[in-house]
Design goal:
The complex is a heterodimer of chains A (about 120) and B (about 110). With about 120 residues, chain A is mostly beta strands. In chain A, about 0% of the residues lie in helices and about 50% in strands. The chains are: A mainly beta (about 120), B mainly beta (about 110).
């Protein structure tokens, strides 16, 4: 079955960096755009970034543009999120989500999430 | 940037119909998708393209979209439907996904 598994979360000090990973299985990973979505404690879902199926296109939310970088390695069926210059407000559960096939973009499969806590 | 507005909470008695709205400027011209999220769990796709359901989602869950409001309706509400519900669209002008703030459904 389709599965996405995030890893790499943890506690990090403000200003430091962290890299998240998302391993996909059960589908042709290289055929789908994949997104990062986060959820701060007690808050709603916030879209972060997307990378196209082949890595040629990347888009970011304004809140993370210039600090976060999305990438993928289709040979490893893995998505990454490099997070630099972390701030307290980046504290959240980070989900990777598989994009639907077609023109309309929605998320038909989500990982279980990984918690990032930015604190001194 | 495009904004989606949801009520923070909706309460309904068991067996009744819950309606959760998602407001946005001319949202009727966009495709709206809905997610259910229970505490400590990842979101699950509930309705896509305004009114379609993925396999495994009960017919009790239905969607509509017109004008400036999209609506998720849950008929014959059960205690197990207590969850947060979020709407989502794709803003093609900015190539961003946009989520509503989420609505907590309480079954009393």
């Amino acid at each position: 079955q389709v599965q996405l598994v995030e890893s790499g979360g943890g506690v990090v000090q403000p200003g430091r960096s962290l890299r998240l990973s998302c391993a996909g299985s059960g589908f042709t990973f290289s055929s789908y755009g994949i997104h990062w979505v986060r959820q701060a404690p007690g808050k709603g879902l916030e879209w972060m970034a997307v990378i196209s199926y082949d890595g040629s296109k990347k888009y970011y939310a304004d809140s993370v543009k210039g600090r976060f970088t999305i990438s993928r390695d289709n040979s490893k069926n893995t998505l990454y999120l490099q997070m630099n210059s972390l701030r307290a407000e980046d504290t959240a559960v980070y989900y990777c989500a598989k994009e639907s096939r077609g023109i309309v973009v929605y998320f038909d499969q989500w990982g279980q999430g990984t918690l990032v806590t930015v604190s001194s | 940037s495009y904004v989606l507005t949801q009520p923070p909470s909706v309460s309904v008695a068991p067996g009744q119909t819950a309606r959760i709205t998602c407001g946005g400027n001319n949202i009727g011209g966009k495709s709206v998708h809905w997610y259910q999220q229970k505490p400590g769990q990842a979101p699950v796709l509930l309705v896509y393209d305004d009114r379609d359901r993925p396999s495994g989602i009960p017919e009790r869950f239905s969607g509509s979209n017109s004008g400036n409001t999209a609506t998720l309706s849950i008929s014959r509400v059960e205690a197990g439907d207590e969850a947060d519900y979020s709407c989502q669209v794709w803003d093609s002008s900015s190539d961003h996904a946009v989520f509503g703030g989420g609505t907590q459904l309480t079954v009393f």
